Amino acid sequence: MSLEMIFVLVMVVAMLTGLLLEIARPDIVVFSVLVVFLLSGLLTPEEALKGFSNQGMLTIALLFIVAGAVQKHGIIEESMKKWLNKSKNLRVSMFRFFLPLPFFSAFLNNTPIVVTFTPIIKKWCEERGIAPSKILIPLSYITILGGTITLIGTSTNLVVHGMLLDYGFEGFSLFQFAVVGIPITIIGFIYLFTFGYRNLPNHLGFREQVMADSKEYIAEMTVLSDFSYINHTVQEAGLRDLKGLYLVEIMRGKDRISPVRPTTIIQEGDHLIFTGLISTIADLQKIKGLSLETGSDLDLEDLKSGDTELVETVVSHQSSLLDKSIKQAQFRSRFDAGVLAVHRNNERIKSKVGDIILKPGDTLLLLAGSDFIRTYQQSSDFYVVSSLEAPTNLKENQKKGWFSIGVLISMILLVTLGWLSMFKAMTLGVFLLILMKIITPEEAKNYVQFHILLLIASAFGIGTAMTKSGLAEWLATGLLSFGKPFGIFVILIALYLLTNFFTEVITNSAAAVLMLPIGLEVASALDVNYMGIAIIIAIAASASFITPIGYQTNLIVYGPGGYKFSDYIKVGVPLSVLVMVTTVVIVNFVWF
User: Fold this and answer.
1) How many other C-beta atoms are found inside a 10 Å radius of the C-beta of residue 37?
2) Contacts (Cβ under 8 Å, ≥6 apart) of 46
3) Is the pLDDT of residue 375 over 60?
4) Per-residue model confidence (pLDDT) at position 389
5) How far apart are the C-alpha atoms of 139 and 97, rounded to whole Å?
6) Alpha-carbon distance 577 to 164, whole Å?
7) Does 304 score more than 60 pLDDT?
8) Where does the record place the RCK C-terminal domain (predicted)?
9) Are the beta carbons of 560 and 386 closer than 8 angstroms?
10) Radius of gyration of the chain from Cα atoms?
11) Residue 41 carries which DSSP code?
12) DSSP letter for each residue of 44-111
């Protein structure tokens, strides 16, 4: 190995470590390594910046806008609600609901699809005494599978497409992925309704538990001077008999009293830390002399007037709130909302709400103004997955919604007929949507997820560094020396497993960008069709089923479903094996 190769290898390993340990947002970690390569002279400014003008990356930005315009008007959401309610049988209802989802996710970004349908499914389950955990993981998995059917179904496909064009190869056609995507979607569908369904947890009981939200939150109350039971015991104050609430700790100055005994004396200024169900936390403020710490001037009583609402959000991987306490993040002033409670799956957070250090997947219960959802629906800091009280009063023009869908279908037809490239079609689509005032330029800007674009564009530079330094060729040679004695099928399996491993522990786009240069070197050495290798890498990078952190849709349902990390392993490992074997067999048969 040359010194240049060693340098690139060390930096790539450091990048992977940083992503795995979540020392910063993924886009910042990858961009930092790109800057190092640029400053070291390994990459020229043109090479480092090439990803920012890549056709695939720019197409993703335009697709964010088109998909946002389609989903803005709620036509798909309302149609799916009616479709879901047409059957009373759980399996039949699930089948009816999930059947159209692969089609939607084949042409729309799957992240907003999951964000949109998560609260719909939760509410439907609660009304029928069904555990949402039986449905939310399949929601994520089926949208992931549906995204593999077309070129525009997932950003990963477009990233690989853009890289192929940059390397001078022919890219994918719109429906080229369908050869693999449709079979794995059908197989995944069957699995999730049979063996997979049995492995899905039933974290809620039926009747009584489902009447309230399934998750326990942490809430904080301050004892004021007019509290009737100052200098009385917890038992005398009636704080041991609150339905759905449990007093876990008292913070008195710098002292922590835990566990709290019935005989513990309550003093003025005490901070009472409760854990409880969402539906009962609002009852705390009814106790005179106890003040609910929301970090906001908003009051739970304002819910009655419709001026405020309870909103549930999930902290994203790209959030600027990560590794900061709620107080340090100045949550109230930034978002004009107070944090009522925090839930972290399988972990009781014994801390004042303001002192909780936020992590990806944390679910926050917010007391927010009535326009919060509209304002922060596209926020990169968190996914808004539930409005627990009255929905926003936003009424969209149905004609505009149908026009948006018509634009998307027209663009797909233009690409399918070969009249326009994907990039040109999406550019025309965005132009029409803004021209006809379906969306405003400001809305278009908000729909674009810039953190994802920065990650993808930076990752292109990392891939260039791996190719230019010879590291990709060296890694490919090592892979071939391992797999060649066993035949091409084993080599393809190894490529798939390595890509899939990266996507589970880092991100899907980064995994694709890292593995494609290696895959192309393998294709060249074996003298086989590069297209089959590229499709294997694209599918493997998207097919993240084993952890909640590998793909954003898995993270979105992690908190609302009340899942354990092990639930993803139990349900996801068999599905991953099925998808891998199916993909490799089809690619081997069609392209080699």
Assistant:
1) 22
2) none
3) yes
4) 43
5) 9
6) 27
7) no
8) 206-290, 298-382
9) yes
10) 25
11) T
12) -HHHHHGGGG-HHHHHHHHHHHHHHHHHHT-HHHHHHHHHHTT--SHHHHHHHHHTTHHHHHHHS-HH
Using alpha carbons only, what angle is made at residue 570 by residues 568 and 571, rounded to the nearest 5 degrees? Answer: 65
**Token duo for residue 146:** 């549906």
Neighbours of 253 (CB within 10 A): 9
Tokens of 57: 């990356």
Distance between CA 353 and CA 291 in Å, rounded? 13
Q: Please report, as a single letter, which amino acid is at residue 306.
A: G
What single-letter DSSP state applies at residue 158?
Answer: H
Q: At what angle do helices 55-72 and 450-469 cross, to 10 degrees?
A: 160
Give the amino acid at 68. Answer: G
Sign of CA dihedral 307, 310, 312, 318: positive
Give which of 89, 127, 29, 152 is closest to 459, Cα–Cα. 29
How many Cβ atoms from other residues are within 10 Å of residue 293's Cβ? 18
Q: How confident is the model at residue 294 (pLDDT cuts 50, 70, 90)?
A: low
Residue appearing with tokens 């898995």: 554
| Residues 567/176, Cβ–Cβ less than 8 Å | no
pLDDT over 50 (residue 80): yes
DSSP 8-state secondary structure symbol assigned to residue 241: S
Contacting residues for 431 by C-beta, under 8 A, at least 6 apart: none
pLDDT category of residue 207 using cuts at 50, 70 and 90: very low
pLDDT given for residue 153 in this prediction? 87
Which token pair is 206?
């039926």
Taking only the tens place, the pLDDT of each residue in 386-443 is: 644 433 434 556 778 788 888 988 988 998 888 988 889 989 999 999 998 888 898 8
DSSP state of 265: B
CATH fold of 214-387 reads Alpha-Beta Plaits (3.30.70)
Task: Give per-residue pLDDT as tens, 232-269.
Answer: 998 888 887 776 677 878 888 888 887 788 899 999 99
CB distance 423 to 59 below 8 Å: yes
Task: Kindly list the domain boundaries of the chain, sorted by start residue.
Answer: 53-213+398-592, 214-387
User: Backbone dihedral region of 343: left (phi > 0), alpha (psi from -120 to 50 degrees) or beta?
Assistant: beta
Residues 6+ apart with CB under 8 A from 289: 223, 224, 225, 226, 227, 228, 229, 230
User: Contact 70/76 with Cβ under 8 angstroms?
Assistant: yes
Amino acid at site 25? R
Average pLDDT, the chain: 82
Tell me which residue has tokens 């004695």.
485
Backbone angles phi, psi at 388, to 5 degrees: -80, -10
pTM of the model: 0.74
State yes or no: pLDDT of 365 exceeds 80: no
Short-list 388, 226, 417, CA closest to 308: 388
Instruction: HSE, CB side, 13 Å, CA atoms: give it for residue 248.
Output: 16
Three-class secondary structure of residue 268 per DSSP: coil
- Asked if 398 contacts 75 with a C-beta cutoff of 8 angstroms, the reply is yes
| Whether 368 contacts 389, CB under 8 Å | no
Distances (CA, A) of 240 to 65, 99, 234, 264, 489: 51, 47, 7, 11, 63
List the one residue out of 291, 286, 280, 304 whose CA is nearest residue 338.
291
Measured CA to CA, the distance from residue 222 to residue 486 in angstroms comes to: 67
Tokens encoding 42: 């390994």
**DSSP state letter for 344:** B
In the numeric block, the tokens 């010194």 are attached to 3
